Amino acid sequence: MPSLADTATPDVVALAGRAAAALGHDPHVADVALKPAFFDWLCRMGDNSLVLGHRISEWCGHGPVLEEDIALANTALDLIGHTQMWLGLAAEVEGAGRDADKLAFLRDAMKFRNLKLLELPNGDMAITLMREFLFDAFHYELLTALTKSSSPRVAEIAAKALKEVSYHLERSSDLVVRLGDGTEESHARMQAALNKLWPYTGEMFAADAMDDAVAEAGIAPALADLLPLWQRTVAEVLDEATLVQPEQRFDAQSGGKQGRHTEHLGYILAEMQFLQRAYPGASW
Fold it and tell me: For residue 240, what are the domain limits?
């Protein structure tokens, strides 16, 4: 019977590293030719979770009701946990001596690879919940596909994250329906939120050379394969919520995955990175 980990160890990062190494050899981690695309893709996964997690955490203590306040805080914690795994693997692939914390706190906005949708201000609860639903529906399908990744490390992370994102999607879908098919005001707010956010959703499926490279290696699915699955989920929920899917093109806003962001990301990073930049290397 294996012994329990030494909970008194001062270096839990080292323990996590040894545990990861015990998962077995992952040929993609050491693939020099694939490294730039794999690193960039891992940063996209981690940055999506980090930025959305930070945005949702801004509701902590400000939620409209206690139950929702706690639920949003827990969702944010889940996403930050995913960030630790994705950016931790990204740092390992990069092999430049950085770790997840350095990637999160010491990169400038142009080096971030998150979707623009996720950096938009929270607005009211309609914006917050509709954004979460639209991303959850995509995130769920992506993680489901990633559990079959040719990279054992990616598959392990995806399997862990999927358990939590399944609940995220269930919760956000339920709230979109309840508010969309609720009062006249809640319906109007949810429809306005959907109309505002819709142009940003196309970026989730806009593949570039990095996406193509990891898909060809079997690490991630082709984004085009996820689109009909996402569309089906979104259509079903919006129909039940009595909300009308916008007719305009949904790929009007893109560039976040390539480092071209809105002004809002700069404000997020100014707050999130302040301590680490003001006191480099500080620990407590």
Answer: 27-278
Q: Give the total number of structural domains in the chain.
A: 1
What whole-number distance in Å separates Cα of residue 282 and Cα of residue 251? 42
Residue 10, domain member (yes or no): no
The answer to whether position 249 is within a domain reads yes
CA angle, residues 233, 234, 236, in degrees to nearest 5: 65
pLDDT in tens, 32-77: 889 999 999 999 999 999 999 999 999 888 878 878 878 899 999 9
Q: How far from 116 is each of 160, 178, 185, 192, 241, CA to CA, in Å?
A: 25, 26, 27, 18, 25
- What CATH number did the domain enclosing 228 receive? 1.20.1260.10
For residue 248, being part of any structural domain is answered with: yes
The pair of structure tokens assigned to 55 is: 């945005």
Q: Which residues of 28-42 are buried (b: 16+ CB within 10 A; e: fewer)?
A: bbeeeebeebbbbbb
Q: Which residues contact 131 (CB under 8 A, 6 or more apart)?
A: 52, 117, 118, 120, 193, 197
